[in-house]
Structure formats: structure tokens, C-alpha cells
């Protein structure tokens, strides 16, 4: 049964997503089921928001941290991890204040990052924000497809090494596993919106804790081995021994991009905040969730990075669970890689849903009379109740997943891709827009002490992002030169 009329009715009292008819709120039944913007009652809590953040932050980035610290060394490595953590936490607190405008508690809701920029900055910055945010979301979903397929292929390789010995040439193509991951995503992408993902994020967060803990435990066990002699240094990989001078510079830059990617979640922070109940105020809950999420992930990141570097030294693999620094116990390696794949199934959705919603809203606004795009049909699913089926959602989301899978097959470069996406998104989404919106909202005078140090922070992060992007692009270029498409064995 079509529910297009129901949507139009909702639009009558929620024009533009902000206004409402005051008389509607006199009805107790209405206020039980709908929020102040006319949308269905939000049910998100501190727990679900924290789970969303942990799912988004502890992703494939954690797997490259041992390699990143190997490039930077014992001094600069941990310092960079902590610095990125503090900056991400600080700017997420600023961004949490932008969910409602002009008042952070009673103002109109901004459903997306772009809405927040529109309400606080306006002008061409809206388009710049949209381009940065959605390009990053596409890149992250491609990166997660690459990582999940490599992890699943690592399970097959682990069993091969266990059966035939570590010296055996166990070649496993990632293509088959990319297709499996894509099929799973095609099914999950039919979840209508971000508000229905809480259970998936909680499962994914548990998985991220599991494989991070396994990685830390295996690293500590390797360090504790009687004849363990991993070579570590204060400055990381050594020029003339491990790398050339030019390679040292490029790898250092790429390592910064990998760390930046590991902390990326600002691009979906507003969307996560939009899932929260209005009481207590969303900004207060989101600040707590950001603090919990960033603090938790930083603890795991430092442990993974430091323990991984101590275990492998300057020879740390790009991915410390799929690079086969560990071979035994093979079943534990298998379990860890399965946890990575399950986690990335959920993380793909957390990052993909805001993009899906943006495209679908854009199309429905442009072609409001097109029933293929705007009409939902309610169907009964066993054990799931009623499901709003939409033909446009089915077709376009399926095509999107296929596109990300094809790109992941053609360019399966883990460290380089992760570094590039991290450098691309860190400055504009994690630093620039939150700082600029805070300055505009708080009406901070130009050249005041607060204005100056915020600008210094912003410009410093721009420099870091640029050098990280340069290092990652150089790494991608080198990988592409030596890569043979469609002969991909890992």
C-alpha cells in the first residue's frame, strides 16, 4: 500500500524540516509519537551515540597504526596519536553545538553537516562542505570494502599457512571476497535510514573491541617471546638501513594521513546527533558521547600502535592482522579477521546512510511527482513487521555498492588509500568547518586571543593535511605503477 499521502501530510507541518503547526502539538497523542519538527520520535541515547562513534572511529585505521608509528618512531608516533585525538575531541565538542540553530537547545534542527554549515556560515561554504563530506563518505566506503575483502582473504591464507607451512606460497584473490561483502551490503543498504542502525552499530562496536584486543594481545605475546628481537628506534625507520631519505619523508607524510583517517568521524557527527532523544538536550548528550568515543578509541589506538611497533619494529606490516606478522594460533587470527569484516559491514552502513539520504532527498525534491522515486510501498516481512519498500532506493543503492566494489577491486591499496582519505577529510570536516562555525556562533572578534589561537590551530592542521595528502598520493602513484589490474593476489 502506498504511503505517499502520509509523507505529504508530514510535509504540511514540517515544511523544510523545521517549521510546524502549533495546534498539532496540543494533542497528547501526537507529541508521544513525533518530535518538535514533525518527524517520528527519536529514540537515540548516550549508549547508541557512543556505539555509533566507536563503530565509525575504530575502523580499518587501527590496523595501520603499528606501521604508522614505525615510520615516526617512539617519540613522534605516540605524540601524533595523542595530538590527533585531542584535536578531534575538541572540534567534535564545537560541532555538537551546531545541531540546533540559533540556540543549541531550543533552536531549529540541522539534520546534516551541510544544514549546520548553511545555518551558521552560508554562502559558497555550503557547497564546499557538501563536496568534502560526500566525497569522503564515498572514499571511506571504498576503503572499508578493500579492508573487509583483504581480511576475509586473510582467513583463507591463515588456514593455508597452518596446513602447508609458513614457507608455502598461499595466494588468495580478494575478488571473491569483495563480491561477498558487496552482496551483504546490497541487502543491508535497504535499511531505510540511519535511525534503524543502532543494533548494527552496537554489534560492530563489540567486533571492533574484539579484534583490537586480539591484536594487542598477540603483539604483547610476540614481545614476550624469549628470542624476540624487533628493531625499534626513537625516530622510526632508518635512512640507509630501512629506507632511502626520500622514502622516509614520503612515508612520514603518509603515516600522518593514516592517523588522521583513524580518527575520522566528524563527517557523520551531526547525523549521529540527529538520532538522539531531545531530552536531555542533544548537544549535552553528544558531547558526552564524543568524549567517551574518542577516549575509548584513543586508548585502543595507543595500545595497538605501541604494542604493534614493539612486536614488529621497523618492519611492521601495513596491516598488522592481515600482513602476517602473526601466524599462530591460526584460529585466533581467523576470528580476528572475521571480527574486522563484521565490524566493517556495520561501519559501511554508518558512513553510507548519510550519503544515501542526501541523494534520495535531492532526487525527491527535484522530481516530487515521480512515483518511482517518492512512493514507498508497505510490505510485511516475517519477523520484521512492515517494511517501506521503495524502487528508487533499491536500484540506486544497489548500483552504488556495485560501484564501490568495482573500485576496490581495481585499486586494492590499503595503506595508501587509507592515508589519502584521511588527509582529504581531516582538515575541512574535522577542523575548518567546526572552528569557523564556532567563531560565527560565538561572535568572536577578529584578532582577539581566542580568534588567533583558533586560526593558528586551523592553519597548522591544513599544513598537516597537505603533507599527508602528498605522501599518500605518492604512495598511490608508486603502487599503481607496479600493480597489474585483474591479476590481484594477496
Automatic annotation (TrEMBL):
Q: Which UniProt keywords apply?
A: Amino-acid transport, Cell membrane, Membrane, Symport, Transmembrane, Transmembrane helix, Transport
GO biological process terms held by the UniProt record:
amino acid transport
Extent of Basic and acidic residues compositional bias: 1-10
GO (cellular component) term, any one:
plasma membrane
Stated family: Belongs to the amino acid/polyamine transporter 2 family. Amino acid/auxin permease (AAAP) (TC 2.A.18.2) subfamily.
User: What organism is this sequence from?
Assistant: Papaver somniferum (Opium poppy)
Which parts of the sequence belong to the Amino acid transporter transmembrane domain? Answer: 43-477
Q: What is this protein called?
A: Amino acid transporter transmembrane domain-containing protein
Q: Where do the TM regions start and end?
A: 46-69, 75-96, 134-155, 175-192, 199-221, 252-270, 291-310, 330-351, 394-414, 420-440, 452-477
Q: Does the keyword ATP-binding apply?
A: no
| Single GO MF descriptor | symporter activity
Spell out the Pfam families in the cross-references: Aa_trans
Give coiled-coil spans as residue ranges.
none
Q: Give the location in the cell.
A: Cell membrane
Enumerate the residue ranges of region (Disordered): 1-20
Amino acid at each position: 500500500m502506498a504511503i505517499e499521502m502520509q509523507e505529504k501530510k508530514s510535509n504540511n507541518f514540517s515544511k523544510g524540516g523545521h517549521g510546524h503547526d502549533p495546534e498539532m502539538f496540543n494533542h497528547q497523542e501526537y507529541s508521544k509519537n513525533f518530535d518538535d519538527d514533525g518527524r517520528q520520535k527519536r529514540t537515540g541515547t548516550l549508549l547508541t551515540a557512543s556505539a555509533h562513534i566507536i563503530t565509525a572511529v575504530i575502523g580499518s585505521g587501527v590496523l595501520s597504526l603499528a606501521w604508522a608509528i614505525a615510520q615516526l618512531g617512539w617519540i613522534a608516533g605516540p605524540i601524533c596519536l595523542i595530538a590527533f585525538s585531542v584535536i578531534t575531541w575538541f572540534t567534535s565538542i564545537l560541532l555538537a553545538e551546531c545541531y540546533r540553530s540559533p540556540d543549541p537547545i531550543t533552536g531549529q534542527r540541522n539534520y546534516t553537516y551541510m544544514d549546520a554549515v548553511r545555518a551558521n556560515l552560508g554562502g559558497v561554504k555550503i557547497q564546499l562542505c557538501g563536496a568534502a563530506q560526500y566525497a569522503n563518505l564515498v572514499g571511506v566506503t571504498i576503503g572499508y570494502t578493500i579492508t573487509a575483502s583483504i581480511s576475509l582473504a586473510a582467513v583463507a591464507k591463515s588456514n593455508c599457512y597452518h596446513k602447508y607451512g609458513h614457507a608455502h606460497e598461499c595466494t588468495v584473490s580478494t575478488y571473491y571476497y569483495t563480491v561477498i561483502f558487496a552482496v551483504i551490503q546490497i541487502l543491508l543498504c535497504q535499511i531505510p535510514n540511519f535511525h534503524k542502525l543502532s543494533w548494527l552499530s552496537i554489534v560492530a562496536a563489540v567486533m571492533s573491541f574484539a579484534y583490537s584486543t586480539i591484536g594487542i594481545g598477540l603483539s604483547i605475546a610476540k614481545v614476550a617471546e624469549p628470542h624476540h628481537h624487533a628493531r625499534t628506534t626513537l625516530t622510526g625507520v632508518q635512512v640507509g638501513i630501512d629506507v632511502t631519505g626520500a622514502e622516509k619523508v614520503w612515508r612520514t607524510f603518509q603515516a600522518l594521513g593514516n592517523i588522521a583517517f583513524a580518527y575520522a568521524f566528524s563527517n557523520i557527527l551531526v547525523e549521529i546527533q540527529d538520532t538522539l532523544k531531545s531530552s536531555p538536550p542533544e548537544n549535552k548528550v553528544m558531547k558526552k558521547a564524543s568524549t567517551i568515543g574518542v577516549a575509548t578509541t584513543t586508548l585502543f589506538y595507543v595500545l595497538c600502535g605501541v604494542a604493534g611497533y614493539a612486536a614488529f619494529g621497523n618492519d611492521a606490516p601495513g596491516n598488522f592482522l592481515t600482513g602476517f606478522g602473526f601466524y599462530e594460533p591460526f584460529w585466533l587470527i581467523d576470528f580476528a579477521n572475521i571480527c574486522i569484516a563484521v565490524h566493517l559491514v556495520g561501519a559501511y552502513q554508518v558512513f553510507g546512510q548519510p550519503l544515501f539520504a542526501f541523494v534520495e532527498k535531492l532526487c525527491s525534491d527535484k522530481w516530487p511527482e515521480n512515483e518511482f522515486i517518492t512512493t514507498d510501498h508497505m510490505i510485511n516481512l516475517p519477523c520484521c513487521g512492515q517494511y517501506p519498500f521503495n524502487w528508487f532506493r533499491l536500484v540506486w543503492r544497489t548500483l552504488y555498492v556495485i560501484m564501490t566494489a568495482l573500485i576496490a577491486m581495481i585499486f586494492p591499496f590499503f595503506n595508501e588509500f587509507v592515508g589519502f582519505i584521511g588527509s582529504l577529510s581531516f582538515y575541512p570536516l574535522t577542523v575548518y568547518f567546526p572552528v569557523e562555525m564556532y567563531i560565527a556562533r560565538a561572535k568572536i572578534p577578529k584578532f582577539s586571543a581566542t580568534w588567533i589561537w583558533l586560526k593558528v590551530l586551523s592553519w597548522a592542521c591544513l599544513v598537516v593535511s597537505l603533507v599527508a595528502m602528498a605522501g599518500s598520493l605518492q604512495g598511490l602513484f608508486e603502487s599503481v605503477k607496479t600493480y597489474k589490474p585483474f591479476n590481484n593476489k594477496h
